[in-house]
Amino acid sequence: MNLVDIGLNLTHRSFTSDLPQVLDRAHQAGVIHMVVTGTSLRASRSGVALAKEHPDLLSATAGVHPHDAKHWNESSAAELYALAKCPPVVAVGECGLDFDRDFSPRADQERCFEAQLEVAAELGLPVFLHERRAHERFIEILRPFRPQLSDVVVHCFTGSRRELRSYLDLDAHIGITGWICDERRGADLQRIVGDIPPERLMLETDAPFLTPRDLKPKPPRRNEPAFLPHILQAVARYRGEDPATLAEAVAATTCRFFGLEMYEKS
Length: 266
Description:
Order of helices and strands: EHEHEHEHEHEHEHEHH
Largest sheet: 8 strands, parallel
Strand order of the largest sheet: 1-2-3-4-5-6-7-8
Number of strands: 8
Helix content: 25-40%
Number of helices: 9
Mean pLDDT: 96
Low-confidence stretches: none
Radius of gyration: 17 Å
CATH architecture: Alpha-Beta Barrel
Strand content: 15-25%
Number of domains: 1
């Protein structure tokens, strides 16, 4: 299977000591490409540098997570714009709203979100989105921008059927993580994942976070991109589809979304 992990945090400190081994395990598992998530300007710079070191295996996003929105200032948009023009960058984000933890004031989150949508629209890049407990306000901000945006994906979707429908109505793609493998928290997602059209479905690990709860034996420390096939198997099971067929459809959707090529050497 050829899979693409659309969101993972490879610049996280937990990968510092063994990143080459992590990348090798992912590739051996059939993950032919990975998109390193930018969560701040600093993390985005690191992600771009890492992607440049592994151009066949990695791309990157550039953006500011709502948790970091309080640091957005007058120069941030220009810095993000320049960073997003770097060749490894395939999307703007991770950006959006998080009213669950409110690590940044909500007014700052909204201002930062809108500014990044403007950058994406100007550059013609897709947007990698984050939303937690902020659905209504998130939609209010996103909807007017949608005609100007080339494409959008709601990363790590865990919401309701109504919320899923509202995203699909905006022609958004949906990213599914190992959340679906959790028999407690993932039960609602298991019931509605079949509602996502195959041309709108993408997969991600969000490593090192969100380790699939049903992995056996349980990993000792962290989530890894090598676990993406396990997530695929769960998604296929709850959709009632053949995993190989689903993998092919998801890979085609993902490569089209990010402008990636299928890698023959995989």
